[in-house]
Amino acid sequence: MFMGEYAHTIDAKGRLIIPARFREGLGDRFVVTKGLDNCLFVYPQHEWAALEQKLKSLPFTRADARAFVRFFFSGASECELDKQGRILIPANLREYARLSKEVMVLGVSSRVEIWSRERWDEYNATAEENFEEIAEKIVDLL
User: Fold this and answer.
1) In this predicted model, what pLDDT tens digit does every residue of 7-47 receive, in sequence order?
2) 33: which DSSP letter?
3) Would 123 be classed as within a structural domain?
4) Which of these, 65, 75, 90, 125, could form a disulfide with 58 (CB 3.0-4.6 Å)?
5) Cα dist from 20 to 23, 24, 106, 114, whole Å
């Protein structure tokens, strides 16, 4: 399981150090894709395979299902760690998530998320304001 939040920087070539706590769970090769809320989702191979199977079962006759699958898979890229524990984030994914120098790397249960620091701070401030209201709505779902 992935948890915690870590502040990191991306170098001029688009390389990002993956926190040591996440490296073992991700393995040497993993998938980075466009996530929701303009962040990137990072999945270990086994989680990606399970998600792929679920998405394959969506009815291709539904426009919303096709659009989501297209969005999710077209942005996907397999990445691997270099000897310094870094990955090269493709330019299209850096652009999508508006990643510049400062980023946040978050553990979110079965995946890792990569956010621009600015976007994370904005999102987090809004989420904190609504945390209790959100909790009231979803606790009954558990």
Assistant:
1) 999 999 999 999 999 999 999 899 999 999 999 999 999 99
2) E
3) no
4) 65
5) 5, 8, 12, 15
